[in-house]
Amino acid sequence: MNKRILFLFSLVLMLSGAFSQSIEFEKDNFPGKKEELKVARKQLDVGMEFYFQGRKEFDDFRKSLMSDKVLPVSTRDYLHVGYENFKSAQSPLMDAQRFNPKNAKLNYMLGFVRFFDSPSSKEALSFFSDAYRLDPEVEQDLPYWLGWCYQLNVNWDDAIKYYNIYLGRLNQKPKSFAIEIEDVQKKIGECNSGKTLSAKPERVFVDNLGPAVNTQYPEYSPAITADEETVIFTARRDNSTGGKKDADAGFYEDLYISTKTNGKWQPSKLLSKNVNTENHDASAGLSPDGSKLFVYRHSGKDGGDLYESTLFGIDWEAPVHMNKNINTKFHESSVSLSFDGKRIYFVSDKSGGFGDRDIYYSDMDIKGEWGLSKNAGIDINTKYGEEGVFMHPDGKTMYFSSQGHNTMGGYDIFMSTLENGKWSKPVNLGYPINGPDDDVFFVVSGSGNRAYFSSAKQGGYGDKDIYKITFLGPEKEPLLSTEDQLLAMIANPISNLKTEAAVEIKTAKLTILKGVVTDAKTNAVLEATIDLIDNDKNEVLATFKSNSATGKYLVTLPSGKNYGIAVKREGYLFHSENFNLPDNADYQEFTKDVALKKIEVGSTIVLRNIFFDFDKATIRPESANELDRLIKLLNDNPTVKIELGSHTDSKGSDEYNMKLSDNRSKSVVDYLINKGISAGRLVAKGYGETKPIDTNDTDAGRQNNRRTEFKILEK
Amino acid sequence: MRLYLLVFFLGAFFISTAQDTVKVNTNITPDEQAQQHYNDGIIALNKGEGQVAADLFSKSIALKPDFDKAYYNRCVAFTMVRNYPSAMSDINKVLSNGPNNIDARFAKAMVFFGQGQKDSTNRWLDNTLGIGKHAEAYYYKGIMSYQAGDYNEAIKDYSGAIEIKPDYAYAYNDRASSKRAINDLTGAIADYEKALSLNPSFVFIYNNLGSVYRVSKNYDKAIEYYTKAMNAKPEYLLALNNRGAAKLESGKLEDAKKDFEDVLKKDPKNSSAFNNLASVALKQKDYKKAKDMANKAIELNANNGGAYFNRGIARQMLHEEEGSCADWKKASDLGVTAAKTFMNSDCN
Description:
Helix content of chain B: over 70%
Number of strands of chain A: 35
Oligomer: heterodimer
Radius of gyration of chain A: 62 Å
Largest interface: A-B, 56 and 92 residues
Strand content of chain B: under 5%
Largest sheet of chain A: 5 strands, antiparallel
CATH class of the largest domain in chain A: Mainly Beta
Largest sheet of chain B: none
């Protein structure tokens, strides 16, 4: 490191405090801590020297990449450039930072060092964030790295905010910064994709394959058989063949294998010695049936080539270098064989592509050799890198990683299907399958329900681990237990069968009339004649007598007739009753004591069997028997003069009732005259409703009140 | 006339012997006794006492072997108590004496219906309708068509019943259900409402109407009608369960949960309510609780396919993949078609 540059930088560090909250390593800022300050400044100088050396390597590499007019999209594209110096810078810079945590430049350097050691670490974000808070202007590109840290920590809004700040600074620069501007604009686009995709996360389980597969060392690039019973992957473990280490202190890559027994992965072990060598040997792909293994090896100036090994019995044969249609002087990696073994897809950064690494394919010729390779086309490949191609055994679905399309950052995994010879627009598999960091080497099970990939996410066994993704699909709607009673007959069963009606039982339905006949004045029991008359037919049905000793009588009246009852005895007025019994009249008993009145002036009797038409004075025919009995009485007693009185109930007006009763009494008198009774013996009298003998509030009472009476006026 | 003379004779006898007490003749003929048993049988039938009725009709027939009406009514009684062989014997006797007795033809169809003999039921319903109009015959043809999944034919049949009997609330309800089945939700709502106007006491129609509104995603109306059903009959828990379902589907998870819990307060062994609580828990992403609730639902009803289905979802989310697939398999076996879809998509 040039001492002069270091001095100038230190000077800037000290002076910058005049414009910010940053605290410089000045003795005035640390009174009484002269010795501690001295130690801290020494550590700062040591750390800065390493930092600037690493930073120079980094900046030089970045400039070299810019010759391709594109800036690295993924942190891994920086290939650990400056790693050793950055690593050496960390400890002294941290010592200085512990003494003075409020120096913006120091925090910036620590952020940078941590970022390239662990890009998504919270420490890197914290250092950059502190640097920006202490002095936003401390470094021109500070908002860029701070924005990237926020992006890698899935804080899309803050990432966009700081990228825009940096974009504002770039826009004030000359046109030569166009590549940087494009780079920031792409990252802002990635954050917008991230916002959109993470707003609707995919429903997946992400499960570590467990300690049988993963260790404290890096495990990655899984290849899996279609039945998911065998996984072959790359690891950089301490038992690596040859035990060599890279500059970043990682062991050389070897291939490992694990198989599943009773659903559980068995402890992984190094793949055959035929496959693993003392150099880097990495998994590049496995045929769906698990019989062909593709291996990536890098030796000399071949840029990294692909080899093919075949499973022979239980061992893998020595990998064979694939032909010139596959391998070039450029970098070839990641292979996937079609389900029928007739086509191979692979990744190469050879010239003539759309930019950086592209996906190519080659068909097997009739000799069994791979033919000329063809680019998979602009629908798949972008100006950025594509990697980790995996062709699903269904023969038409390709999974691959890309830094282009709508990635959320770095490589994201996409899916495209081959329809009518054309690849569909690649679909981002979404969050959290993809995130802002690199998501590569993704293989899908034959069922399509699970996938395997490697990740350095927290919670694993150390460094990168291999994980299984279980796709859960759209949220499953629960099934409610509901119940309806859609058919009424089931909800509320009733018999729809009509029943035949009840029958009339032909048993005698009777009314029994009983009582005692007495003399009205003396109360002496009397033997009397009782006529039972069918009023409708005007015929006497039967004649009975009351008991001479007790005066008792009993008459049975079958239902279904209008009965007239006449109780008679020589020298007495007859007594009249009426029983109109319909067919359905049930059994009933009446007790009716009859007090016969002598034929003498003032005696009255009610003629119960004289009937008129409704509301008229017309005598109905069924009155004949009663009237005949009255005529006989008058004929037997020729000196008797009587009044025929007619009465109504209280329904209707007084005047109306009076007129009706008057007319009815006259009708009876007219009848008797027509039958030969002298008009001089007869007086017609209408009483209307003036002389009730019962209540008018009931039907029975009103019926009693509607009556024809005769009274002996003279004898 | 002979009967009257007998009565008069008895009356005269009583008078002549001057008895102080009245005696009524209780000696009735076998015919009269048969008629009395027959009438008593009808009373029992109207009370829903089928076996008592059948016994009384049998006594009636024993006294009067040519009593056709008693055979017919005994067939009705036997049908009521599901003694179909005896019912068939009786109705065949009635038909042998009167093959064009339309009610007897319908009764024979009902005997077949009771035995689940679809073809014979349909044939005798057609035989009934072949000799006259019979609303109930059309109604049952509607039921047969509905149960056969021929909803358009069912609608025609129920319409036939309604044409003959315009106040046939059952036919309106069932026609509404048929319309619902062919997704004519507007027509279904109109018919259910008509059925309710004809008989507002049929609680199940309120529930059915609520369910059409729920299917229509008119959750406010659905909840309104389920509530009416419950107000009319508080022990009608299926409406309360359904109301909870409407609330759940409208996103009111806590309200739904309360309804399901209320069902369980009244009926602690209600498997459906437990399964619905499992559904609420699934929606709330409380998978452990969902599994517990589904477990209870299954304990109470081992044939609750929905509970297996829901437990499968819960177990999947609890990372119990094998258990979830076993549950979906069981649910599928129990007729839950969606479970088979999950098996195909998630269990390979």
